[in-house]
User: Fold this.
Amino acid sequence: MTEQPMGVVAPPPPGGPDQSPLGRLRRLGGVPRYALILACDGVAIALSLFMAYVVRFEGHIPSERVGQFFDCLPVLLAIRIALHLGFGLHRWSFRLSGLHEGVRIVYATLIGSALFASSFYFVQRAAEDVSLGPPRSVIVLEFLLTATLIGAVRFSFRVFLKWGATGLKPPSGRWVKTLIVGAGSAGDLLLRDLQRSDEHSYRVIGFVDDEPMKQGATIGGQMVLGRLDDLPALVERWGVEQLLFAVPRLSPERLRKILDSCSDFKLSYKTLPVSFAYLNDRIGVSMMEDLAPEHLLPRTPIRFDLEETRRHVRGRRFLVTGAAGSIGSEIARQLATMEPSRLVLADINENGLYFLVRHLQRIHPELDVVPEVVDIRDAQRVIQLGLEYRPHVILHAAAHKHVPLMERNPEEAVKNNVLGCRNVIRMADQVGAERFVLISTDKAVSPSSVMGATKRIAEMLVRLHANGSSTTFAVVRFGNVLGSAGSVVPLFKSQIAKGGPVTITDPDCRRFLMTIREAVGLTLLAGLGSEGDLLVLQMGEQIRILDIARVMISLAGYVPEREIAIVYTGLRPGEKLTESLMSDEEEKRSRSVRDGIVSVGSAPPPADLDERVGELAELACRGDRAGLIQCLGRIIPDYTPPTEPVGIPGQGQESDSPEAEATGVPEVHD
Assistant:
């Protein structure tokens, strides 16, 4: 059983508490437990003294020495029991005892022998009779025997767990052969916890580590069997089923290489969060978490100062559009922890909005959270919303995001991503909001899709209205978000659960990836605290979607392309093989403003942008799709519309764009 913190009562195991003698003994606590431990110590001390006499007198104790034994025994027991209480040896954890506790036993025994010898030395000097005390050899032998027996009693349970309990059935009914990746301090602590605990089914075969000095070394009774490159051979040789990663800073590139090399085996993977790897406390198997795609991001996770963001949030009124979407709901959840005076959540998706607000009210009952069902394409309704709540900050996350759907319905992309954004911008200026932040996408850079083109125009509208307004306008642009609704991660999970195939547009398709928590945390930090009208989140190198698919198949316990097929469907109209976070011109004007955030000096928008957007609005209302595409090309010279026919939505992987799906169409699921 795992040790419980003070004041926490462990729940009974399934089927009720263990009623065996051993089970009742393990549940014994308080004074009865201490009394039993001290009674066992008393027996061990008496036996040690008796054995010392037996050894000293070669198996035959003279009659006069028998009386001496009974005279010495009470004195020795009194001294040793008092010291055991003083050193706290009665408060013993049989499961978690280690070297420090062993040293305490030696100290207590040594001091007890010194006091025992000293007491008889002074008695002998006073009475001038050396026969009153035991021989010096008996004192030495008793010290050695007592230390040995007391130690044996206390460490026997750990010995049983290490060498005896391996023959018992684990909770799952079978042992899972396991390798620990990393033979450092984290791996050592993890192994110790596994050896102490009986609530897991891992049988550790050994370690793997790349450090040359550790090869062949033994740690906690387990050998370092080889390097990380040897994993496939070791897995095959020993029949390994589980890898536990205990390397604090294993690079994503190295992790992907390991997963790729082991992809032919049906393995499970767990990893230790980096934050636990530097604790001085014990590292437990309960801290392990399933390896996930976000562990493979080709960069170190970005850390940001929450207190700095909190200073921009506390006491202010916030409006979040697209609040029921992936990004919008995460923005709402993070803002809710930072003490805004009011949080207004607007979305056309009433069902998603309802559940989000209920969640926030349950977690933050003191929060003033207001749900508003709003279509941002309705200019009057948007103005009404702003006048009613007078938000200090507006975070605009509402947009249509799916590339294939917007290729088929360009008029809807224009109505929502362009005209809806313009309505919210005008409302922010009219009600005197302090700050307006637009969530944008890397698909707005040299756009090849209607979705990207409409987001680019939305960025231009923000820059246009920033001139001469008392409101500070900003755009935060980033790439794909792992795990957002309709993105590759949930889509691949669904496909794998159905037995495949996993669909990918192209084996060379690459994307910038970021966790949703990182994306929103940096968005708040950038949008609320950084200067600049265009802020770009640094997302490291792009990663192949194929690598994500193969890893997810491996993490699910299948062999890629053998048990789960991977099918290539071809790029769909509007999609690119790779994306860019900045154009070449923008990159020349960029500068880093803080870790993970770049400010871009953007070019001024066309002076007649409002007139051109008006033309777009007329074409969208008429449903003139060909005219819309031509008009988008006139507004954005580097827009390259696809020449191939539009495919059927749902083929291949969906978009991972950062915008929320909050404007009138349901989320897309394969």
